[in-house]
Amino acid sequence: MTTLPLDPQRIRALFPAFAKPSLQGQAFFENAGGSYTASAVLNRLDHYYRATKVQPYGVYAASAEAGEAMNLAFERMAQAFNVTPDWIHFGPSTSANTYILAHAFADWLKPGDAVVVTNQDHEANSGNWRRLARHGFEVREWSVDPRTGRLDLAALDALLDDKVKLVTVPHCSNVVGEINPVAEIARRVHAVGGVLVVDGVSYAPHGIPDLQELGADIYMFSAYKVYGPHQGIMAIRPELAAALPNQGHYFNEVKPRYRLTPAGPDHAQIAASAGIADYFEQVAEIAGDAVSGADPFRRAHAAMRAQEIALATPLLDYLRDRNDVQIIGPDDPTLRAPTIALRHREPGVEVARRLARHGIMASGGNFYAVRLLEALGIDPNNHGVLRLSFVHYTSPEEIDQLIKALDAEL
């Protein structure tokens, strides 16, 4: 394995889970379903619940402190995205955020407008947008290659015209894992006057992107998959957020943070999300001069990707040499996130059950990517795939443990 930019021991020391006796010997390979929570997040959550669990933004000291802690989370997440705080919105979950956004777009789009969706996505960023057809809008599908699961830009070009006002894509699929060229997609969508919505749930754990470079108009991810609390975070271009119809109480229409999140999430969890930014800065500090970047968040992103590529290389090399499994998506670790789904003759969950005997925490199923598995010719309900997902805090020893377990059970 090539030199790692991040010392696994220093990184893992920032997560209480790795010190729990009950988890010793257990290698966590289900990070795509939710990562471990960083101490920086837990410390903020604990303080909020213990010291400021009151209605925020009031006139007394505890309430004012609570509001300041929440404001800080907006500011810190904006720093991570390289945008201003008015881009940031917190909601109960990414699924809920997408549901509300789709309702807002249903009232914003005009008769004759068209929407483009993919069948590579998690259903939360597909089904809600497809329902716009009920309102009379044309819904076009950007379909994956049935052999590779890839989204081809030429196929997108064939769908784009001046009727298209909204395109929704995943930054990377939670099954295929290939990193889609979002900046190029954004240029093509904007060229026809459309808005680009990016589902970043499966990508953000591997580095929060610079939205100025990415070009997306809306970017969404789940904080609990990015070392934080269980809620959804959206970055929305402020002028677009202001143009979308209010989805909250009528008297809150003038408050940007309330217009697109009618069911506000837990205040403590908003405040705790500032810890996500704290953690990324800690990652950048540990990386030191091993990587470069304009700010700590870009350096953390670079270090995390380099770490994951180094960790994924021996695993993909091993899997590539087997003739009894099919890697879904590219087998080049530089082209994908380390969310590696495998097609096997047995149902994915059955293989995962056997891997658990070896201390491998993984899972099998359709992972809400039913349309994608159907397109790939895989029964999503009775067979599914085995999914092995990890992040930068996974150790080389755990990769070795996984390979040995696969060798014994496949």
TrEMBL record:
The Aminotransferase class V domain, residue ranges: 28-402
- Keyword line: Pyridoxal phosphate, Transferase
Instruction: Extract one GO molecular function annotation from the record.
Output: cysteine desulfurase activity
Query: Recorded E.C. number(s)?
Result: 2.8.1.7
Question: Does the keyword Ribosomal protein feature in the UniProt annotation?
Answer: no
Coiled-coil regions, chain positions: none
Q: Which InterPro entries match?
A: Aminotrans_V_dom (IPR000192), PyrdxlP-dep_Trfase (IPR015424), PyrdxlP-dep_Trfase_major (IPR015421), PyrdxlP-dep_Trfase_small (IPR015422)
State one Pfam family annotation: Aminotran_5
Q: What class of enzyme is it?
A: transferase
Name the source's superkingdom. Bacteria
What's the protein called, per UniProt? Cysteine desulfurase
